[in-house]
Amino acid sequence: MRVKFTELTLDTFRMLQSLEWEPTGSYQIAVKELTENGTMSDQSGPSGLIDIHLSTEISDGNLPSNPQRAIIYHPTVSHLIAVLATICEELSQDSILLIYISASGLADQNAYQKYASSSTSRSRPASAFLIDKPNSHASSDDHVWLGPRGNGGPNNLYPEDLIPFTRYPLFLVIDSENSHAFKAIHDAEKGEPAALLLSPRIASAMPGVESMGNGGQFTYFLTAPMQAFCQLAGITSDIDSDTYANAENILFSALEQYEEILSTSVGLNIVWGQILPDPFLRRLILRFIFCRAVFFYFHAEEHGEHLPSCLPSLPESVSPNAKAIKTPILLLAENLVVSNRFHFGNRT
């Protein structure tokens, strides 16, 4: 599917990349040229010469096709719903609809412009301590704001707006300080039980550090967990290649271990069981488990405002308290010499 866009946020770019197969390096080049009678002739000869006027298709023969995707930048709510309805009409019976939304919880444009940066669809103060949301409308936390409309009217997306799409298998990822509002979808589905990954209400950072202009922290962990971990731990200097390679190996092994634990858990909800066979969605779930545990040990005391949540609940075997989940994170922190920035000893 070809997508045209005029602006792409950092969050959307990261998520888009995470939903593509990594190239293997084995490329096939099919070059075709129009003949005089309008038919196509194959010009893929051994010479390797490709005329600039030829139609060229480059594909990696070792990979399956990427999933169909649609990107919408600051849509109106009605436009978003119309696009989702069109996509649902084209879904096959064995497909899962993934909806990823990165949006502000701020209800007015002036407040949004005060806190937003040019590199992300929304931004919010990040602190290791509980702080007030940057929103003067304290009671308006039951929606996310999709951006300004041309006529200046409201453009708020409510959980109820997405419930009709639960007639299909739905995997919903929300990165917003108001993500918790979408818990209302759980047990209100119209057909298929939905799977939800929801960001923390408050981002985390080293005391006195604000992660402004770097995109959504939750999205960062779901799409580039190694880099997100380094950012959270406040690693600002260059890491030598051997140390970084070892850290990547620790993370890779951890995610493999998490996958084995999750797939063999007796109490695994059938909703997650139906999603795990999909490689892209499985990767998001495993990175969520890692993200949640990292945030858990980053704070000295547990506070739900700092932790991402999921519905239905994942098994206790992959909870942050589980030894198999904690140990790789401790090894990763020790390898990067940042274990003193976490609270492994006093969290149970």
Task: Draw up the topology in text.
Layout: H1 10-18, E1 27-34, E2 40-42, E3 55-60, H2 77-90, E4 97-102, H3 109-115, E5 144-145, E6 156-157, H4 159-162, E7 170-175, E8 195-198, H5 217-223, H6 225-232, H7 241-263, H8 270-275, H9 279-298, E9 309-311, H10 323-335
Parallel strand pairs: 4-7, 7-8
Antiparallel strand pairs: 1-2, 1-3, 5-6, 8-9
Pfam family, one: SCAI
InterPro entries: SCAI (IPR022709)
GO molecular function, one term: transcription corepressor activity
Number of domains: 2
Order of helices and strands: HEEEHEHEEHEEHHHHHEH
The overall pLDDT average reads 79
Radius of gyration: 22 Å
Shape: globular
Percent helix range: 25-40%
Tally of strands: 9
Strand-pairing-aware structural class: alpha/beta
Task: Let me know the largest β-sheet.
Answer: 4 strands, mixed
Largest beta sheet: what is the strand line-up? 4-7-8-9
Distance between the termini: 47 Å
> How big a fraction of the residues is strand?
5-15%
Low-confidence stretches: 27-35, 38-58, 109-139
GO biological process, one term: DNA-templated transcription
InterPro entries: SCAI (IPR022709)
Pfam families: SCAI (PF12070)
GO molecular function: transcription corepressor activity
Describe this structure in words.
- The protein is an alpha/beta fold and 348 residues long.
- The chain has 2 domains: 26-60, no CATH class; 77-341, no CATH class.
- The chain has 10 helices and 9 strands.
- The strands form 3 sheets. Strands 4-7-8-9 form a 4-stranded mixed sheet. A 3-stranded antiparallel sheet has the order 2-1-3, with no helix packed on it.
- Strand 1 (27-34) and strand 2 form a beta hairpin.
- Helix 5 (217-223) packs across helix 6, helix 7 (241-263) crosses helix 9 (279-298) and helix 7 (241-263) runs antiparallel to helix 10 (323-335).
- It is globular.
- 30% of the residues are buried.
- Mean pLDDT is 79; it is low at 27-35, 38-58 and 109-139.
- GO terms for molecular function: transcription corepressor activity.
- InterPro entries: SCAI.
